[in-house]
Amino acid sequence: MPIRLTLPPTFAARIDEADRPQVGMWVCSGSPLVAEIAAGSGLDWVLIDGEHSPNGLESILAQLQAVAAYPVSPVVRVPYGDTVVIKQFLDLGVQNLLVPMVDSAEQAAGIVRAVRYPTSGVRGVGSSLARASRWNRVENYLADAASTISLLVQIESAAAVASVEAIAATPGVDGLFVGPADLAASMGHLGQQSHPQVVEAVLASIRAGVAAGVPVGVNAFVPADAERYLDAGASFVAVGADVALLARASEALADRFIGTDGAADASGDADSAHRATGSADGRDPSATGTSAGTGERPSY
To answer: Which controlled-vocabulary keywords does the entry list (predicted)?
Structure first.
């Protein structure tokens, strides 16, 4: 007889049950091997990116399978809030869905409908063919599907911040995730995630979520930023990314063992010489999550 399975708790449930904020990182490489390494790191959650990273349905499926053995919550970001794309991701077995660029309560409500089966929504029914129900080995999947999914929407524009209270109050939205990079760009501060106006917009979003009883997370690769937002009431943070960690750590190796002269001689250009000196303010770029030699925050 077939095995009967129970799906793991959602990220929203784990946030609710936790006695501290949940700390995680991005997996942007598209690699199941790297996803598994990140899942075993001791962090609480990993964010597999389908918007800015080289991921398709097959690679996301492989990464979900790779991290399944570990006590970590996998969150997956879709490229955009399209009903068909959301259906495909959910059928893969994505339980924790992050939708980017949600600017209004009306848009949030439409996304909620995309993750729910009729009559509460418009999700297409294909569970018997899909990993989501483990091919009908999860009993009562169709009736209980809504309880197996947590929906997070991204607040990453000035328009979204202006509507954040209404978005947070939308039934079916389980959490907000603030993206300071796109938010800064929309406010006319491209690349300036720590600009005071951007910081205040992030803090306003956190306050709105806390007031509504909805968890709020923030993307914050700079430790001081992460600590500021956690102190303000953020329930979860993403504090790094696999590709950024590899880039900065490999640059640090080159800096230490080759040095300025070797890097300059190998490339023959001034840019490489500048990169080899480390960050502009003398700090180790691998420790801060900033781009080597520029002090710029990674944009996610």
So the answer is: Lyase, Metal-binding
Question: For the segment 230-254, what is each residue's pLDDT rounded down to a tens digit?
Answer: 999 999 999 999 999 999 999 999 9
| Percent of the chain residues past pLDDT 70, beyond the cut | 86
| pLDDT category of residue 2 using cuts at 50, 70 and 90 | confident
Which residues are marked as active site? Answer: 52
Examine the domain organization and report whether 238 and 259 are in the same domain. no
Residues 258 and 232 in one domain: no
What is the count of structural domains for the chain? 2
| Section 61-73 average pLDDT | 98
- Asked if residue 100 lies in contact with residue 51, where contact means CB atoms within 8 angstroms, the answer is yes
Tell me the C-alpha distance between 252 and 245, whole Å.
11
Q: Do 218 and 264 fall within a single domain?
A: no
Total-model pTM: 0.87
What's the confidence (pLDDT) of residue 263? 53
Greatest mean pLDDT among 138-147, 254-263, 288-297:
138-147
